[in-house]
Amino acid sequence: MENATASLFRARLVPGLILAAFGLLPVLAGLIDDTFIVFFAIRVMIFAIAAVSLALILGFGAMVSFGHAAYIGLGAYTVGILAENGVWEFYVSLPATLVVCGLFALVTGAISLKTRGVYFIMITLAFGQMAYYTATSLSAYGGDDGLTMWGRTEIFGSSMLSDRMTFYYVVFAVLVAVWWLCRTMVNSRFGRVLQGARQSEMRLQAIGIDPYAYRLAAYVIAGMIAGVAGALLANAAEFVSPAYMSWHRSGELIFMVVLGGLGSFSGAILGASGYLVLEEVLSHVTENWRLIFGPFLILVVLYGRGGLLGLITGGKRDG
């Protein structure tokens, strides 16, 4: 009983510790005078947002999407193309990002969710690659070479996002908001139906609930959140590339979610952080770092109960 109570306590404590660490990290960077930590943490948080969005449909809806990175690319290209045409205001670029990603998710999701299992994986992969090759064909916006942004999105005419610390805390605020939103959704009736569909669609249909609409809604919401991550990534790098939406990136997002622990948004954040930190460290140790990285990920998935979060909490999930 004591072990179960301790595990539950740790499961509830971990989310606060993770978010507090991100909130206080700039202070540590200032003390040791290392600006790289801040830039790297911004990248980690952006991919954590994308991982949380994927965790919504993968961990709670059992929808293994191999085209999720397409929404990161769509969000990035929406901001980049608007900037290229002289539109820098966030109140234009943010709604445009949500609309573009939402419509793409609605259309592709309506088709993809008619399938199951490996067929769903393959059709989401096909849609993702379709978006990727469309981006490479946009010669007016850089094509294969990508698109350079000469600045960051403005807020009511102000270029406050050009300040490194301001941008950091904007990304941090978005991460917290996305984490809270997704937790709220899965703990609501909507989330219970979504999780019920993962276990048995026939039972839901027997009590008069059609899970298709709920699954599609979750798919669209996840796509829109990933689009926001893409918009932030474009601003962070001040560059947009078709590589953002390649299937390799989708595979990395799945690894992040599984590495952190399925069925947990805090695990998705932890998985994204662990994945990118390990990648950064090993790449400085040897140029063949993938030979170490790959087996490590496999071992964690095979033997780490509940991923990294499970190792910390003893298998308890925070939701």
What's the quick description here?
By secondary structure, the chain is an all-alpha fold. 74% of the residues lie in helices and 1% in strands.
**Helix segment count?**
13
Overall body shape: globular
Order of helices and strands: HHHHHEHHHHEHHHH
- Low-pLDDT stretches: none
What percent of residues adopt helix (DSSP H or I)?
A: over 70%
The major beta sheet can be summarized as: 2 strands, antiparallel
The tally of strands reads 2
Strand content: under 5%
SSE map:
Layout: H1 2-32, H2 35-58, H3 69-84, H4 90-112, H5 117-136, E1 147-148, H6 164-186, H7 189-199, H8 201-206, H9 211-237, E2 239-240, H10 247-260, H11 265-285, H12 290-303, H13 307-313
Antiparallel strand pairs: 1-2
Helix pairs in contact: 1-2, 1-6, 2-6, 2-9, 2-10, 2-11, 3-4, 3-5, 3-9, 4-9, 7-9, 10-11, 11-13
Word description of this protein:
The structure is a single chain. The protein has 319 residues and is an all-alpha fold. It has a domain at 28-246. 74% of the residues lie in helices and 1% in strands. The protein has helices at 2-32, 35-58, 69-84, 90-112, 117-136, 164-186, 189-199, 201-206, 211-237, 247-260, 265-285, 290-303, 307-313; strands at 147-148, 239-240. It has a two-stranded antiparallel sheet. The two termini are 21 Å apart. It is a multi-pass membrane protein. One of its GO terms (cellular component) is plasma membrane.
